[in-house]
Amino acid sequence: MPLSAAHADAAAGDAKGTDFAVAPALSDHPAFVPACHAVSGTDTSLRAMTAREAWTCNAGAPRADSPVAWLRFDAQAWDAEERPRHFFTRSARHRSITFAALDADGTLRVRSFAEEEARPLAAGPVFTLPLPEIRKETRALIVRVERPHSVPLLSEARLIYDVEDAGWSGHEMMLLAMVIGMLILPLFFDVSFYVVLRERFVALHAGMVMSMMLYVLFAGGLVSVFWSLPVAFSAVIAPLSWALGCGLSALFLAEFLERDALSPRLRRLTVAAGLWTIVGPGFFALQFHWSQPFDDRGYFLAMMPAAFFTTFAIVRAMMRGSRSARYLALAWAPAIIASIERALRGLGLYVGPSSLDQMLYVATAIEVIVMSLAIADRFLAIRRERDAALTEARMLEHLSSRDALTGLMNRGALEARFDDLLRQGFDTFALVDLDRFKHINDRYGHQVGDGALIACAAALSASGDRDSVAARLGGEEFVVLLRGERTLERAENLRRAIPLRIASQVPGLGAPVTASMGVIELPRASAHALTFEDFYSRADTLMYEAKASGRNRMSYEKLTMFDTAPPSRAQAKARSKDRSKGSRAAA
Q1: Which of 110, 463, 509, 520 has the least C-beta neighbours within 10 A?
Q2: How far is Cα 235 from Cα 395, in angstroms, rounded to an integer?
């Protein structure tokens, strides 16, 4: 974000030699500008400043870096019959303002006001003070400003007849109100975007918008329409909010630009410049009286790192083809130009009309609106990127959890989900193994064997109901988990469907490819006490018993719980010769 602040409000008017100048006012009454200016230490008296040789009477801007600044208004400027009664100027910090009306006989009528006695107006960033009596014989009005913190406090000082003649026009105040209205909508956008897209750059932009709103309210004096605040408070909040906004802008840029738009080093430098802008200019914006000799100039100089690195970062990002950088360039170009102009006037390097102040407020509104469009564009891009990434992640997860040949869940995925499946009621565990599968591979080749495996998987998952889950453990070994009623009968139906499906999908095998099955059925209340390995080990033993009993059959057990380890395959082989209970041969 470009540099600026309430410090930099315009230095207007043109005082040449001892000739007076009349500035345009809101009514038919003229407003009178100083003819001369001077600076001194705090020990210089009002009487010493009555001598003309003490003054500088040229077109140069007054200085705000000395303990005391002086302004001189000559009597030739005002009408002999109607004389000014009020002083007004730009709101800025100071310790006190003293007026001395100098008569022709050397008499001085003095009136002094502390900073807290200044009266802010609801017509721009200005305040007024009453003058001592200006008589017909008054030859000059001398103004002593102790500890001035801003050049515009001096360069925009005016004498007027009525308080109504001070401040900005209604059109100018209406423009400020429109700018505030234009800033509110992007703030709502930021809040909405952040709810959906928790990106840091959205929160940073919301902080920028709120800072700019504060700046327009206080630097433009619009806040005085609603509240009568001390001049010192308004004079601090305006530059402080601008420093905060500029710092957040640099942080926003570092977050908003695409990852490959900036080198890591340049991104870190931009972040450092943003943090410095919040701390450095933020300190000078506080305007302590002891820092008065250098805080005005220090404020602008401390802004330079952020201005340089943000501009350089945008240029570099555009060279790398960044779409976001093009939005930033479009949004910030008007604000950069307006704030440079404001800084030059604020430092007293040239004078210009106060109407130039409106440039930065309008540029601020343009910046915020364009950046809101940029955030919306980036929002859509990130959503597309995230949707694509989620789709890819789902695909990878699917591939990692599925058997590449059959498409069924693999063993790792089944084990990971096993406890959850038990809680869902899948308490029947059926282990399936194709009979004499090695013979098929050896005689017909692995391609035919793969076809048989695919057909077997299709048979086990053909029901497509939500009460059965099929998985391939490896080789010719499969598992089916079932829940609900008649699970043994449904498991046997699946086993019997395997030869039919293989025969229809893999012709030319010469003989049916059968399957043996070992089934464990456990009451749901007890199922959670067993692990996958417990189920597998028991079902594997039963399945081996089915093979030992002649293959092409199912062997099952309905358990309550078992306390000892299941029998080994050797024990099952010896036991299968005389065991017929619980075994069912294929029809």
Answers
A1: 110
A2: 59
Domain with CATH 2.60.40 in the chain: 6-165
Alpha-carbon separation of residue 476 from 33, 235, 305, 435, 457 (angstroms): 100, 83, 70, 9, 10
**Would you give the DSSP letter of residue 261?**
T
Please give the CATH number for the structural domain made up of 170-392: 1.20.1070
Would you state the CATH architecture of domain 409-585?
A: 2-Layer Sandwich (3.30)
Largest CA distance in the chain: 141
Please report, to the nearest 10 degrees, the dihedral formed by the alpha carbons of residues 143, 127, 125, 122 taken in order: -160
Q: Tell me: the pLDDT tens digits for 267-280?
A: 999 999 999 999 99
Beta-carbon contacts of 81 under 8 Å, excluding residues fewer than 6 positions away, are none
Beta strands in 417-476 (DSSP E): 428-434, 468-474
Q: Which helix (H) or strand (E) holds 134?
A: none
Backbone angles phi, psi at 375, to 5 degrees: -65, -40
148: left (phi over 0), alpha (psi -120 to 50) or beta: beta
The tokens describing 309, both together, are 């690195």
The string of pLDDT tens digits covering residues 373-432 is 777 776 676 667 676 667 666 665 655 778 888 889 898 888 888 988 888 888 899 999
Please state which CATH class domain 6-165 belongs to: mainly beta
Q: Cα–Cα distance between 188 and 190 in angstroms, integer? A: 5
Closest among 539, 526, 504, 499 to 515, alpha carbons compared: 499
